[in-house]
Amino acid sequence: MSEVSLENLFNLETLEAGLYRGNSWDLGYRALYGGQVLGQSVMSAYKTVPSGRVIHSFHSYFLLPGDASKPVVYDVERVRDGGSFSTRRIKAIQNGRNIFYMTASFQAGEAGLEHQHANMPRVPSPDEVMPDIQYYDDNLDKLSERMKASLCYHRPLDIRSVGGRQAFIAQKREPNRKIWLRGRDALSDDITVNQASLAYASDYHFLSTSLQAHGLAVQDKSLRMATIDHAMWFHKPFKFDDWLMYEMESPFSGNGRALVQGKIYDKDGTLVASSVQEGLLRQVQKT
Fold first, then answer.
1. Domain around 156
2. Distance of CA 96 to the CA centre of its chain
3. Which one of the listed residues 195, 212, 227, 266 is annotated catalytic?
4. What's the chain's Rg over C-alpha atoms?
5. pLDDT digit string (tens) for 155-185?
6. Are 25 and 2 within 8 A, CB to CB?
7. Domain presence at residue 175
């Protein structure tokens, strides 16, 4: 397994009971990648819950931009341990300030009524879709030095956007996106690292889906984008080192914000998770 791997990213240092520290990856963005804080928060919360309880949902708010050059400290509060459910509140801290809050709920497994009223979209297989990283490899001469240096941190994920090159073209189209994704390195069967990895990946290409309704591309320098809140629900077990289909759509944008929704299926079409995010979406007028 490579040194830059998801399992290493989620190998948090225990400072004391309920207090953990995670290293940061600089993905070449203006600030710390939000998915890192999501995944590390999930992992830190798992360290405090009774054995056998699995996260089924989290709701989070991004308060301040994170610094990708510094580690993040996670302070986990034990809110409740009931007969079936456990609740945790997680604060992500940098430079003595809270940059992020998450509330996560865990449940002991139980049998019950089940249905799935969602169908995985018909798309080309992963083998027929070009890896997103190939676009950057083919255009190294156009990348900033910081982005070139950050590419190693993108490689632990194998992301393949259906019609991917369109994302870099400023052309108005339906605000939906479909991507195949998986971890490049083999992961253990431990559900904690698989769920933390999916939380990490769930922020990739998500908010930018809303740009398609406006004929804008993510590299447009007039845009100001940032995640405000992010929620996920985990429905079924999955392995993150196997292919997952992430279907995204943006039903609304306005008042400087955009909403995006996601459904995540395993390769057999089982809905394994759902996600929702609202983010800042502003276009600065050029002077």
1. 6-109+127-283
2. 24
3. 227
4. 18
5. 999 999 998 766 667 778 899 999 999 999 9
6. no
7. yes
